[in-house]
Amino acid sequence: MTESLNPAEFERMKNEIVQLHILVDRLNTKQQALTPPKEEPQFSLPERWNGEVGSPDGLLASLDMQFECQPGRFPTARSRVAQLTSLLSGHTQKWAAALYNSKSPACNDYAAFVAALRKTFVPPSSEVGAEARLLKLRQRKRSHRFLAHLRWPLEEAIQNSLRDDPAPPETPAGCLYVPTSCRSEALSWAHSSRLSGHTGFSRTLKFLQRALWWPCMARDIKDYTSACDICARSKTPSHAPVGVLRPLPVPSRPWSHVGLDFVTGLPPVNNLNTVLTVTDRFSKAVHFIALPGLPSARRTAELFLENV
């Protein structure tokens, strides 16, 4: 026989169940509020690129990964261009600043900015390949077959100039004669190109002698490398350290230390156009001796004893 339920007891249990549901909902809401939002992954900044060494492929690949994993930090193309610009240095940074100051549309288009950067600082693949193939030429294997397969602008210029300035009979076997009109271009390519790296006289000479020749090659290379402004400013001198400069001793009394000098090229007066000055370094007193010209060392000593 089923026991009947008191209505008042039923109402109390119903209210408790409702209160429990409300409490559970509040706990779930509080737990969701305490859960921290999902953070975007952090990336270390890649190395800056100055446009002189290497290529920007590594830098651009790192930025592409950063843009993909952090879309909230770089939502627009302009913000991505700004991030790339902050990782440029040297010539590339100056180029980017000039592009921004000129209000170029590429500053608002990341793909266009990257294309302009590559076009300005990354050489064409054909040029790099030609220089790399020439650098791989081994010494003692001088063959025109190498030059026949190599299509670089210097070879074409040499072949065109050989029509007016043919190779002399003393040209070594296996070497291509360089006419006078192409020698400056050959020296610049062998010494100042991106792959040669401003080598010294000996390395530049050995490099050119592998496939090229012209009379007085060593002298021209020596003059060119000695006059290279970049080498003069950046290369470390190989000579012995110079001596320490020492000031002249300070005299302690008059006429213990003197200085002699000649003033020449003066308008002649009574056939005298030169003045010998004898200066006391202690008192700064000066003797002036008029002369008809520059005297010899013996006569200078005699004039000093006679007048001072």
UniProtKB/TrEMBL annotation:
The superkingdom listed in its UniProt entry is Eukaryota
Example GO molecular function:
nucleic acid binding
Cross-referenced Pfam families: Integrase_H2C2 (PF17921)
Which part of the chain is the Integrase zinc-binding domain?
178-236
UniProt cross-references to PANTHER family, sorted A to Z: INTEGRASE CATALYTIC DOMAIN-CONTAINING PROTEIN, PROTEIN CBG26694
Name of the protein in question? Gypsy retrotransposon integrase-like protein 1
The scientific name of the source species is Nothobranchius kadleci
The gene name reads CU459095.1
